[in-house]
Design a protein that fits this description.
The chain has a domain at 34-98: STAS domain (Transcription Regulator spoIIAA), CATH 3.30.750. Helices cover 42% and strands 31% of the residues. The chain has four helices and five strands; from the N terminus they run ββαβαβαβα.
Amino acid sequence: MLKVHAKNWDAVEVLCLEGQIVNGETEILRRIVQSMPVTRDIVLDLSDVSVVDAHGLGVLLQLREQSLARGVHFELMNVSEHLYRIFEITRLNTVFNIDSAAQFFPRAAYAQRMPVAA
């Protein structure tokens, strides 16, 4: 079963996924992303995802396209080596923005501090 834990960081929605992004388990993710209020960024944290099948990749692509159409930046972070290999084989690593938490969170923290400092 796929579990989704949402965290809001300023105008950035971080969705921490846990489980498998596979056929029959993706509807909750789709519903959450599509029902999100207007935000600047959507980040999917895949650190606790063990498997992504072809259907799951298709859902991720669909959510990315829908987000971009709304002007929302969409990226993945904490992709394990095993999952990253799937993205490489399918060449989706050239489609998705894939960052590590170390790269993402300092940028988000800086963006969050900017209005206070201005």
